[in-house]
Amino acid sequence: MEIVLAQIVNGFSLGSIYVLLVTGFNLMLLVARIIQFAYPQFVVLSMYASWAVLESTNNIFLAALAAIISSIILNLLSEPIFRRINNRENVDINASFVASMGLSMIIVEIMSHSINNGFPVSFPDYWGGKNLFSFGYINLGRGEFYALTGGIILVAIFFYLLYHTHYGRVFRAIAESRKTAKQVGLAVLKSSILSYLVAGILGGIIAILFSMLLGSASPWLGESVALKVLAVSITAGLGNLKGGLYVGLSLGILESLAVGFLAGSWANVIAFVLMLIVVLTKPEGLFGAAIE
Amino acid sequence: MRNLFKIFIFSLIVVVAFSGVSFAQNEVKVEKWTIPFLNSVTGPIASIGEYMSWSAKYAAREINANGGIRGKDVEIKIYDTGVEPDKGIKQMSKVVDDALVVMGPVPEAVIMAAVPLAARNGLFSMPVSTSYEYAQKYFPWTLSWYPPTDEKLPPITELWAEKNPEMKKVVQFVEKWAAWPGMADAHQIGLENKNVEVENIEVPQNMVTFDSLVVKALSKNPDGILLTTNSDKAAKIIKQLEDRGWKDKENILVFSSADDTPLYTIGGKALEGISIYNYINPNSNNPRWLKFKEEYKKDHDGKAPGSLATNYYDAVYMIKEAIENKKITGDPAKLEEERKMIRDYTRNVDNFEGIQLTWDMNEGVPGSKGAFLFKIIDGEKKLIGEVK
Amino acid sequence: MSITFNYFIGFSFIYILMAWAIYLPYRVKDLHFLTVATMAVTAYFSGVAAVNWGWPFYLVLISGILLGALISYIISFVIGDVPTFTVVIVGITFIFITKTVIENTDYLGGTMGFFAIPAVDNILLIMTGITLVISYFLYMIDNSQLGRAASVIFADKKMAYSLGIKPKRIGRLFQTISGGIAGSAGVLYAYFTGSLFPDFFSFHLVGTLMTIVFIGGYSTMWGIIFSALILGGVPILLPSAVSSWKNLIYGVLLVSVILIKPDGLITKKFLWKIKNKIKGM
């Protein structure tokens, strides 16, 4: 029983990774109507930025700031690309998926060639901190706690922002139809840039939480999770923030239990097969898509 | 007397003429020796590819500083294959028409795809970082740098078990990639020879967090842990074990393929006291090795050479020896013949003096080259045992 | 012909076939990544049939095509009329399943890979023949009522329904044909390379194929030939120092094309202009 509990606690830790990334992914869907497959890569590159600053200054605050600033820059740089795609007459969400795949290839190639000679980078132990709780097999590290609570808080914040504030309504209106939004007098360009700024801040926070949770980053870290993040979003319902939270955490727990009690390589298969069953029985997702 | 003199002069003329002809036949026809090296300098094993390229080029610089090969400089030309089989084939196809010999490929997937192409075209490949089981499939157009895995590895884990007699049960983390499952089986044989029970836990390739695997391992109440995974994962598992209170660090053994930069940068202080094996003795007093180590550290921020660092250094010297001893000319008209000469020489060389070891090759298989067991103390590997 | 050129052409054929296998279902907006899993299955089937069972090449080829078509046909019932991204999940799931089964099956070589698939004489000629046959077949589909119906489904599925077109049925047909094409690519890949390694049949291959399809142009079959040759040529024609940045080059090309020419380089409009120019001559 203790082992099962331990694996469930581990599952929350893994699940928090999916929750954080799927929140960013869903945010891009809601405010920009794009499938941002490169979002995990943006987060990883921000982790590298914070590592670089930490290596040269040994200052945690500056390193955290570096993560947020770099994430903002990356997201803002991608804004014109996706704006141009969305400005077309016949907007096809597949085009954003394909463009983001291209961005993903570019970022991974840059990281694997140019940063730290392509080697993984490691964060110092004090960055994540010691264990908060340890009892038998059950262990909760500080980084894991921050990632999990951070994930839940961020989902709550963005849910409130998008559905209960003026700016949130503006973002969603522009994402729904830029043309109509312009016609009713909304500042489309300014709001679009603001929405990417928000996504960038979120990405930076995720990068900080990941570096605490994982303690290291490699050029292929984003790729390892990108497919699962896409699958979680589709299973929960595209753009559904609450759904992403529940499905992300559930997937983490399921994977941990599968890895813990079955052969490791089958954990991925089980996860994807279960998600496949869900999407085939409920194509709009378990909790319903927030966008069409 | 006069007739004798005439015969003598005539004989002298004939001897000189023939010498001249044979000298001309053995004259080097190339301006420099270009040795292609199909290597992974991009992709997931780029960190290993980088130091292997460095080592091969270092060997070339050393050779050139000492007069080259048969008076001509040697150049190592790197062809990047990543870990992609089709890229490997394409790169091999660029060299297969003209090269005397090719070093690499490195990753097993690329070896499988590209070496048959070389073999079909009579080009000898030297994939000296792979296991016997891969190289042997393409004999005689390759050679193996290592004896068969099930001969080479059991003695190492037996030695580790002897050093830690309190171990009765070991959990082995196995990443299912290329030859590693076979190596894991060989590790298990050695431990079972010493009456140590082994349980294997599979590590998925795209694993991001390792706490669930570590809990699984600890739930089996092992006395020892053996890591047959890549360096990144090995380091993270060790850190997780430490976080969960694992104290007996010498009862953790990391296998040779994980003895690579990410192990040290990610593992950090958590590696203190762990055991690791590989095929390089960092404490060797061989002057060539000392110089190699010094130059390596200069170019790699003070880090010690990786476990496969000497392989391609030695391969370059083996090719040099073959060219010199067989008087290879590099003449394109003799390409087929000279390729076979290099092949046959290297596959059966006696007393080859590598940078650390001297060994024989017999039909492409080396005599035992030994292995070294270390403990990490203050971030450095300290030798605690040797398998000869 | 030099060996380099031979391999360049051979791999180009394989990538063209696989890109067509993705192009055809995308005519009705299905991103059908299952083709990669199908290619893996038929490639390993070819290896086993050739090496372990001693089957001759043509028998393996026909069986591989039929096997690929059958796999896609069966899965198409499961897929039904689900949205695009659900089809993506189907493909990804089967890629994971296939790779895991191969890695855990010693009979298929496991993680070591599968070796020693015998070479076939005149493989390039055979590849040329198969590519021509499939290109003709695809050309006939594109220029038939079926092709026009597919264009309507792509533009507006609801309109298609109201015109009496059956998207589900056409989708199923295209997926089945695509499976057959992927099957042929798997067989040819196995014989051409002589060995199989499970890591090749992964999401990376999906990325490469998507790049070929979207750069060449997803609305016609011809752009794929052009983009496969160009993208396949990068690792061969450019110096190693540049070609090691292959994925960066692909990524930049992909983003650029999506921005500047979102329908790809060769579109229906472009072909129509060429046709008219030729007629005018």
Shape assignment of chain B: elongated
Reading off the top of the CATH hierarchy, the class of the largest domain in chain B is best stated as Alpha Beta
Mean pLDDT of chain C: 90
If classified by CATH, what would the architecture of chain C be? Orthogonal Bundle
Protein chain pair with the most extensive contact, residues per chain: A-B, 42 and 36 residues
Q: Examine the coordinates and then state which fold CATH places here, giving the name of the CATH topology of the largest domain in chain B.
A: Rossmann fold
- Strand segment count of chain C: 0
N to C succession of SSEs of chain C: HHHHHHHHHHHHH
Structural class by sheet pairing and helices of chain C: mainly alpha
Fill in the CATH topology of chain C.
Answer: ABC transporter involved in vitamin B12 uptake, BtuC
Main β-sheet, spatial strand arrangement of chain B: 6-5-7-8-9-14-15
Number of helices of chain C: 13
Q: What's the Cα radius of gyration of chain C?
A: 19 Å
Number of domains of chain B: 2
Describe the model:
The complex is a heterotrimer of chains A (292), B (388) and C (281). Chain A has one domain: ABC transporter involved in vitamin B12 uptake, BtuC (Orthogonal Bundle). Chain A is built from 12 helices and 4 strands; from the N terminus they run ααααβαββααααβααα. Chain A has helices at 2-32, 39-57, 60-86, 93-114, 125-128, 142-164, 166-176, 178-183, 188-214, 221-236, 241-261, 266-281; strands spanning 121-122, 131-135, 138-141, 216-217. In chain A, the strands form 2 sheets. A two-stranded antiparallel sheet of chain A has the order 1-4. A two-stranded antiparallel ribbon of chain A has the order 2-3. The mean pLDDT of chain A is 86. Chain B has 2 domains: 33-146 and 293-356, Rossmann fold; 150-278 and 371-387, Response regulator (Rossmann fold, 3-Layer(aba) Sandwich), CATH 3.40.50.2300. In chain B, the strands form 5 sheets. Chain B has a 7-stranded mixed beta sheet with strand order 6-5-7-8-9-14-15, sandwiched between helices. Chain C has 281 residues and is an all-alpha fold. In chain C, α9 packs across α12. The radius of gyration of chain C is 19 Å and the shape is globular. Chain C starts with a helix and ends with a helix. The model of chain C has no long low-confidence stretch (mean pLDDT 90). The A-B interface holds A 3, 6-7, 10-11, 13-14, 17, 112-113, 117-122, 125, 131, 134, 137, 139, 141, 213-216, 218, 220-221, 224-225, 255-257, 259-261, 263-265, 267-268 and B 42-44, 46-47, 50, 176, 201-209, 211-213, 215-216, 218-219, 232, 235-236, 239, 243-245, 261-262, 265-266, 268-269.
